[in-house]
Amino acid sequence: MPSALGHLKVIDFSDTISGQYCSRLLADFGAQVVIVEPPAGSAVRRLPPFANDGDSLYFFHLNTGKRSLAIDLSSDKGMADLTSLVVGADVVVVPPGYDCGALQLANESAVFVDISNFGTDGPYSDWKGPEIVHQALSGMMYNNGECGREPLYGVANRAALAASVGAYVGVLAALYTRKRSGAGQSVRVQIAETAAAMCFPYVVQHIYNGTVRARSDQAIPAGQVLCDGGWVCIWIYNHRWKDVLEVVRLPELENDPRFCEPVVRRQNWDALFALIQKQVVDWNAEDLVERLQQAQVIAAKAYRPSEQFANRHLNARGYWSTLHGKRPVLGPPFSLSATPRVAVTDAPQLNDRQIALEWPKKSQAQLKTGPSVPLSGLRVIELTTAWAGPMAGRILGFFGAQCIHVESPNRVNSWRLNKEASNPINFPDGKPGDRPFDRAFLFNSQNINKLSCTLNLKTQEGRDALRKLVAQSDVLICNFRPGTLKKLGLDYDSLKAIKSDIIVAELPAFGISGPMSGYAALGPTMEMATGMSAMIGYKDHRPETTGPSYMDPIGGFNAAAAILTALIHRQNTGEGQHIEVPQVEAAMQLIGPELLKAIETGIDPERNGNRSPYASPHDAFPAAGQDQWIAIAAEDNTGWLALCRLMGCPELALDPRFKTLADRKDNEDALTALVAEWTRDKDKHDLAEQLQKAGIAAAPVNNPRDLALSTYLAHRGFFTELDHPFAGRHNYPTLPIVLSDTPGGQHSAAPGFGYHNQFVLHDILALDNDEIAKVRERAMMTDTPQPGA
């Protein structure tokens, strides 16, 4: 099979998990990747968790499909050897903050990639940044866990690996524009900024009306029950209330005064789920989920990591492969019909093959055109709703594509909130106005740089108009349920007949095939299906999910990555293709090492709050104020000694309960109490500064107000002020992917409903007035949601 990136040569001497995952994605789709390691081997080779044979499962997961070369970069000869490789490379992944000047002079057509914690200048540039710090600063951690208890940071290194996907997107955008200009450039991504980009909707809500949602206000219409075989999350929308009761065989609760009305039902949520729990305690978890899904109720089992290798759905899809008949390899994050992931080979042994130190030098192409936005001239059609699909389109629009958000006149994007009562917390200044569906913070946070066109695709005229639009477009993105496009006659084969090089990307939660392919899902239930939730939670408590929803923005990043991979292939060959981004499988990459460890040993990580086997203390501690917290992580004994000194208790370092990491882990409750007593009356921001200056990883657990006022994000240019025709002028978060010569940008606020109908019909489709009138009438083109929405 051909590969999308087989023409690329990549050098990775980043020596970080972020850099190595970025280059692994390049290797997955055909690039020749060489990791340059120190003579003693990459530091990633020494990262836990470890396989039974002692190999780092992090290194294995991040470096399949690559080759290794050991070079001592502290010597002149080593730098000369590195330069010899760089002159023939297309992409060079460098260590955080690396000065690329000399290497860029050696190869001006290469794309240089720098993924760092906080950048080299501005606030936090000298801060330590383990995962708990990034999640605390991002605003995501503030949403997680029970009100009154310490918030939860999550699991693994999800922020770092999300930044890798962002960097991969930036690399491909730079390579796409290089085809036109002949020039390379730098791509910079910061993990802290990426983590904030995963949690931006509620920052926009605060900017709109000052709301800071407390964790006590974060109630979602879901709960969990423990069944035979595991925990099950049940999402109870009001319109599915009777369906839930029928499935769990509790029809008598429909008229129970505690539950019959939605508002009262929410007030008695714990009592409701206690009754459901009693009813289903002996039911099989997967059977319950299947029954609920058949009744159109969103539900999911919280799969344990050790279960995933035998997962019937994943196996039906052929997700897993094995190397040497033993070690599993995770499936690809996305699948491309014409250029699938290349056959996976083992992670390399140190310096395991002879690699010519001099790759053929890249010809320095003459500058063909001046710098431009990478994707200018491309047109993208979005048939999407909520978060993941629109975010994929938003990323493409950020890099210059024209994105047309096609909306139904009578089944409107749920994030426009047109079905909901006009709760003031959703709108600027708390006022719904005459067009609340154009003033909702959720939709407006996610649909920047787009056009809105309404078409009823259930009518022949609506489908015909879309087909005409496809004939003049490059990409179509859809996050409807599998099979929906085919029912509408708009599947890939049908659209390919209209536009031979069209790229169609579908984002089904569980994939297009397999026994769970038809399951409906939301971010939290997808998180349960990955195996993440089983690792997140308080000791001896139920699994937790990451709020507001971690899977959706990750799904958007992966979809944009897949589309850009296909665009690179199309740019070189003229061939379009079909893309499948199964969001659950894509997100499993973020916990790949943890999955592999549990599968090999059969032992699942225990939920234990924020505590880590590799650091202590490693937790969130109370700070001054209501529900205010600070995250602190002593990553090694040096950090622990520094913490003892800053606390004014140097004798703690000599206390036999706390002398070593093993001692601190054995006495962690006592240690947590001591640190909490010290932090509880201190300002979280000031204390974090003091801790970081002392060399201790720490961060305030930020809420939306903190993010809106963040000096770090302001320095990074994270916010863009935009005028919205119905919501007014406000700051909106941007994207964390910075290209040095052809940067993306935000130029227009989210569109009003149907705001660009005339532009699409007249300026793009070039219809005459009679044709426009016919389409408007029969395809129900409107600028106001119709009854039944």
UniProtKB/TrEMBL annotation:
Keyword check for Transferase: yes
Q: Which SUPFAM superfamilies match?
A: CoA-transferase family III (CaiB/BaiF)
Query: What superkingdom does the record give?
Result: Bacteria
InterPro entries, per the entry: CoA-transferase_III_domain, CoA-Trfase_fam_III, CoA-Trfase_III_dom3_sf, CoA-Trfase_III_dom_1_sf
Whether DNA repair counts among this entry's keywords is no
Task: List keywords of the entry alphabetically.
Answer: Transferase
Gene Ontology MF terms: CoA-transferase activity
Q: What is this protein called?
A: CoA transferase
This chain's source organism reads Pelagibacterium lentulum
What does the organism's lineage look like at the top?
Answer: Bacteria, Pseudomonadati, Pseudomonadota, Alphaproteobacteria, Hyphomicrobiales
